[in-house]
Write a structure and sequence with these properties.
Elements: E1 4-8, E2 13-20, E3 23-26, E4 36-37, E5 39-42, E6 48-50, H1 52-56, E7 65-67, H2 80-88, E8 92-95, E9 101-105, E10 108-110, H3 112-131, E11 137-142, H4 148-160, E12 164-170, H5 171-178, E13 188-195, E14 200-210, E15 213-224, H6 229-248, H7 256-272, E16 278-289, E17 292-301, H8 302-314, H9 317-327, E18 336-340, H10 347-357, H11 370-381
Parallel strand pairs: 1-11, 11-12, 13-18
Antiparallel strand pairs: 1-2, 2-3, 2-4, 5-6, 5-7, 8-9, 9-10, 13-14, 14-15, 16-17
Helix pairs in contact: 3-4, 5-11, 6-7, 6-8
């Protein structure tokens, strides 16, 4: 009887966890990361890159680098989300014979579950390397709003990756499990505010205690499929490009190598500004012209970043209002607010959430890892 692993198959990042001595443990991948970018790239020599290695060459190999494929999984080509996605991504999204949304890389058409399976294979191998034994069973999480077709496609991805998917559970429910909400006495109403790399979801969950058993019900869910941490990065990248242009008259946007470096630096700066008031973005030899090499060096304060992204944070509040309205409950009835997704580490996000719900959010579980941990907890009781 092998262990059942818990997998958070995210739009931007994925994470794998197991239960060890009654506690959920997140397993580090071969590169030492506790999360793995949900990115797959097809190199010219036919090699398939997954995770960090794919992310590192995303800007320089845009047509063959697939990211945020979760937006397509189990969807029809004509759906609004898919049509919007086509405008946003550099890779090719095509219509399959059965009208599903597929992707095409160097002339080869592939179904989203095939792509997601590559990420799941890496998560499976990560767990196997740690446990020293084969892993064949998993619990995989999906957004609460996923329909049957999207849930089935996620199961298919698991099967292609060699996993028997024991259960598909809702991400907000998994997060609530990671926070021990199944241990609390009596009934509870919980908000899960999930601002990930590519998407935003807010859910109202009711946890009812029936004969000592806890039943989780998602009362309402809302969000924005195209709002996440990457949009915050883009704001910062655009600002850096503008500053550099003011100083040198040169536009870095046409230079993929420079943009790849800038993207990595912007993400790093954003993360640093969650704990510091100021940071430097310093990129020597970012480009060159006839007068010689050019260096980029820009100081960014936390206040500057907040000004650049304040409207993005504000955009998460209306879905919160809608979810509360749909659930038919008042803010005063909320027992706990749980933060999920790396972008919720930003102090401005925490501040706006606390203002809206009238209480500080809990942050005693790593927001990048809560969903995978909850999946592992669920896996252990199956």
């Amino acid at each position: 009887m092998g262990k059942i692993i818990g997998i958070d198959l995210g739009t931007t990042n994925s994470c794998v966890s197991i239960l060890e001595n009654g506690k959920a443990k997140v397993i580090e991948n071969a590169e030492g990361g506790r999360t793995t970018p949900s990115i797959i790239a097809y190199a010219n020599d036919g090699e398939i890159l997954v995770g960090q290695s794919a992310k590192r060459q995303a800007v320089t190999n845009p047509h063959n680098t697939l990211y945020a494929v979760k937006r397509l999984i189990g969807r029809r080509f004509d759906e609004e989300v898919v049509q919007k996605d086509i405008q946003m991504v550099p890779y090719k999204i095509v219509k399959a014979d059965n009208n599903d949304a597929w992707v095409e890389v160097s002339g080869q058409k592939m179904a989203p579950p095939q792509i997601s399976a590559e990420i799941l294979k890496k998560m499976k191998k990560t767990a196997e390397d740690y446990l020293g034994e084969p892993v064949t069973e998993a619990v995989i999480t999906v957004p609460a709003y996923f329909n049957d077709s999207q849930r089935q496609a996620t199961k298919d991805a698991g099967r292609i990756a060699g996993l028997d998917v024991k259960r598909i559970i809702n991400e907000p429910t998994a997060a609530a499990l990671a926070y021990g909400m199944d241990k609390a006495k009596g009934d509870h109403t919980v908000i899960v505010y999930d601002l990930g790399g590519g998407t935003f979801d807010v859910s109202v969950i009711e946890i009812a205690e029936v004969d000592g058993e806890h039943q989780f019900e998602v009362l309402a869910t809302n969000g924005d499929t195209f709002l996440g941490g990457e949009d915050f990065d883009i704001r910062l990248i655009d600002y850096l490009v503008d500053e550099f242009k003011k100083e040198t008259g040169m536009n870095l946007k046409g230079d993929p190598l420079a943009m790849q470096r800038l993207k990595e630096a912007a993400e790093k700066a954003k993360i640093e500004l969650s704990s510091s008031q100021q940071t430097d973005v310093n990129l020597p030899y970012i480009t060159a012209d006839s007068t010689g090499p050019k260096h980029l060096n820009v100081k960014i304060s936390r206040a500057k970043l907040e000004a650049l992204v304040e409207d993005l944070v504000q955009r998460t509040i209306e879905p919160c209002r809608m979810a509360m309205k749909d659930a038919g409950i008042d803010v005063s009835k909320i027992d706990d607010v749980i933060l999920v997704g790396g972008q919720t580490r930003m102090p401005l996000v925490q501040q706006k959430v606390a203002e809206f719900f009238g209480k500080e959010a809990r942050k005693d579980v790593n927001p990048d890892e809560a969903v995978a941990m909850g999946a592992a907890i669920q896996g252990a009781v199956l």
